[in-house]
Design goal:
The complex is a heterodimer. Helices cover 43% and strands 22% of the residues of chain A. By secondary structure, chain A is an alpha+beta fold. Chain A starts with a helix and ends in a 20-residue tail after the last helix. Mean pLDDT of chain A is 79; it is low at 1-9 and 537-570. Chain B has one domain (6-137): Rossmann fold (3-Layer(aba) Sandwich), CATH 3.40.50. Helices cover 50% and strands 17% of the residues of chain B. The longest helix of chain B has 26 residues, at 112-137. Chain B is globular. Chain B starts with 5 loop residues before the first strand and ends with a helix. Classes of the chains: A alpha+beta, B alpha/beta. The interface between A and B is medium-sized, with 21 and 21 residues.
């Protein structure tokens, strides 16, 4: 019975071994005890058991054989399937084709005699200068595997794209014997050549280059033509070769927001003689996981012409409006002065309304002209080192009259005795005046607008805090947009052109600073401006609004209310 | 120092001329000659013998600069101080006109209640500078 508890042997050799051991054991018993009728019956039982075991094992072997047959059948199907899907070839250490499967032959439409012994470069588009072939050669010499996209050519001259895996074959001495090269259709096998061709012949210039070395990975036909590059020598080029005036450190500063996550895309405008080009740069991941820059240069000459024409039209209209406004405002002022006679109460009220709205119209015309000037890069900023403690104090005093009209008080305080910033007094006064007038408009009569000046790291921070109704969160993104009116949650109408903050933002950017706000509904809003601390007499930035306008980074599509985009130092 | 008395004002816009007339005659109490164009100004200026020229910059046919150039050719007008008025508020233009000898550039719309005071202040500066030059020359 103990035999049944034994684990049955799994192959015939084991069965024979067990059988031998049993027979040997019985012989030993017979030798010492002499044959008895009992021992015969035991022997017979044992023989029966042995036969049973042999039967079971032979059945197991039969099952195994039938499974192997089935597997062979399946294997044949698998081979047939892979022959269709995989394009496999074996090459020797010199890169000559040794053997290949049916899929390979079908793909490239060559006969055996046309392939065997021939260099593998014959199926690479462009021959030995093919990018994938170069990778293959490098990998073989370094005895490492490679996988990537390969642009190939068939016997009848058609270009085909495959995903290619190269696995080197080494002998026991670790010497290179050859390699197995497996090609599959890439997942986007239909799209890849189509898209590649689209990019290739696109009118826009496309540059793909490494983020570390700035070495070129890809340039489409337009880009290569513009730079005078040949495809063969592309990988020896750097993006810096595309423009002899390009400065690497400035370029790195330009693309820095891409790495910090501050921007998805950075945009700059370049001038090529009489032409303008807008370059959009973003990050991409290469097929081997490497970080790449993708820059697309689009001809912006026509757009610039249209913008210029639009700007000139607006400018002319605005200027033309100033002439009749001169007469209207002049007449109203003369009437209001009483020099031409006196008015009754109602006439005087009507006159005041006319004066107020004429002023409003004039501010709008001036703001439009300012904005157009900034966008055209015509707003000159004569910057100099200026003490902000004095300047803020002066601007607050200058605007006190307006606050008095609204019965609002301006309260300026700072612990600083001096705060030097490099700025244009005229333009910065405009920024502060805008913030002060906004704060005054949104503050209830009898309340105060707090103005503070302090230092935040490398910046001077000027804050203007009102006790107004606050800005609803859903309005945050519109605050610095052109023609955006500051919202009035309390429903009061506060007149403004909607351009003041847009102009202020551009002026602050042109000073390498930033402008932002924090707000709480029902409690008020603080607008603050950060300006770099001026430390060195040599620290002079010659930023005009041209730079602020033309090189302004395109921020993430959903711009946060925190406006931390900085002007580029290009 | 002689008082500012006679002003020659040239502007093609009738309404602006009317406002300026009230500002300069009624409020400023100046003796005023107004012309509608540079051409008319060159014809009438010499006989008027102005102390100061107030020229609109943007005018059809002859603009302010051309008008000034022609007026300068007239006897007695080669050194008369000039003030330009313009709706084209442009720092570059203002600087250019000042470099060309303008006392100042007044932006339109101007305040008619302040225009006379402004011109008197400029006249004062013109005379002060003239006196300094004379002293340095002596």
């Amino acid at each position: 019975m103990s035999l049944f508890r034994l684990k049955l042997p799994s192959d015939l050799n084991s069965v024979i071994l067990v059988f031998g051991l049993l027979v040997s054991g019985i012989c030993v018993i017979e030798l010492f005890s002499g044959p008895t009728s009992m021992s015969y019956s035991v022997l017979a039982s044992l023989l029966g058991l042995i036969l049973l075991v042999i039967y079971r094992q032979s059945r197991a072997l039969q099952v195994k054989e039938s499974r192997i047959e089935a597997l062979e059948r399946e294997g044949g199907a698998l081979t047939a399937a892979t022959a269709n899907h995989l394009k496999v070839c074996e090459i020797d250490a010199l890169g000559r084709i040794v053997s290949f499967n049916q899929g390979f032959a079908d793909r490239f439409k060559y006969s055996t005699s046309e392939l065997v012994g021939k260099p593998i470069s014959m199926i690479h588009s462009g021959g030995t200068s093919n990018r994938a072939y170069c990778y293959l050669k490098d990998c073989l010499s370094e005895k490492r595997s490679w996988a990537g996209e390969s642009e190939d050519v068939t016997a009848d001259g058609h270009r085909v794209f495959s995903h290619c895996t190269v696995t080197p074959v080494l002998d026991r001495a670790k010497s290179l014997v050859g390699a197995i090269v497996v090609r599959t259709d890439a997942p986007k096998s239909e799209e890849t050549p189509f898209l590649r061709n689209l990019f290739h012949y696109l009118h826009d210039e496309i540059y793909v280059y490494n983020t570390d070395s700035l070495g070129m990975v890809y340039a489409n036909v337009s880009a290569r033509r513009a730079c005078g590059w040949s495809n063969e020598h592309l990988e020896q080029k750097s993006i810096l070769d595309a423009d002899p005036n390009m400065d690497e450190s400035l370029f790195r500063a330009h693309v820095a927001p891409l790495f910090s996550g501050e921007k998805d895309v950075v945009v700059t405008v370049v001038e090529r003689g009489t032409q303008f080009g807008e370059i959009t740069t973003r990050l991409a991941v290469g097929e081997n996981g490497e970080a790449l820059f993708v820059s697309v240069l689009r001809d912006a000459t026509e757009r610039k012409k249209i913008e210029r024409a639009k700007m000139e039209t607006v400018s002319v209209v605005s200027h033309e409006m100033r002439t009749p406004l001169t007469s209207i405002k002049g007449s109203l002022r003369l009437l209001q002065s009483g020099i031409l006679g006196s008015f009754d109460k109602n006439a005087k009220q009507a006159l005041d309304i006319a004066v107020r709205n004429t002023e409003q119209l004039l501010v709008l015309v001036d703001d439009i002209l300012d904005l157009e000037k900034i966008q055209a890069g015509k707003m000159k900023m004569d910057k100099a080192p200026i003490d902000l403690v004095r300047l803020v104090d002066e601007v607050v005093e200058m605007n006190r009259g307006y606050a008095d009209e609204l019965r609002v008080n301006f309260h300026f305080e700072t612990n600083l005795t001096e705060a030097i910033a490099y700025l244009s007094v005229t333009r910065f006064t405009q920024v502060l005046a805008n913030l002060l007038s906004n704060a005054a408009k949104f503050t209830s009569a009898g309340e105060a607008v707090q103005v503070t000046l302090d230092r935040k790291g490398g910046f001077w921070r000027i804050s203007v805090t009102d006790k107004g109704p606050g800005i609803p969160e859903e309005e945050y993104h519109t605050i610095f947009a052109s023609f955006a009116q500051l919202p009035s949650p309390d429903g009061k109408n506060r007149k403004g052109t909607g351009l003041g903050l847009a102009i202020a933002q551009r002026i602050v950017h042109a000073h390498n600073g930033k402008i932002d706000f924090v707000s709480k509904c029902g409690e008020g809003t603080t607008f603050f401006v950060d300006l770099p601390v001026h430390t060195s007499p040599h620290q002079q930035f010659d930023h005009t609004c041209e730079e602020a306008g033309m090189l302004e980074n395109v921020s993430n599509s959903e711009k946060m209310h925190l406006d931390d985009s900085k002007p580029l130092e290009i | 120092m002689r008082e500012l008395q006679r002003i020659l004002h040239v502007d093609d816009d009738e309404d602006i001329r009317a406002i300026a007339a009230m500002a300069l005659e009624l409020i400023g109490l100046f003796e005023l000659l107004q012309c509608t164009s540079g051409q008319q100004a060159t014809e009438q200026a010499a006989s008027f013998d102005p102390d100061l020229l107030l020229l609109d910059y943007m005018m059809p046919d002859m603009d302010g600069k051309e008008t000034l150039r022609e007026l300068r050719k007239l006897p007695g007008l080669s050194h008369v101080p000039v003030v330009f008025m313009t709706a084209r508020v442009n720092e570059n233009l203002s600087n250019e006109l000042r470099r060309d000898g303008a006392l100042d550039v007044i932006a339109k719309p101007f305040d008619p209640m302040e225009l006379a005071t402004e011109l008197r202040a400029l006249w004062q500066i013109y005379n002060d500078v003239g006196s300094e030059r004379a002293m340095l020359g002596s």
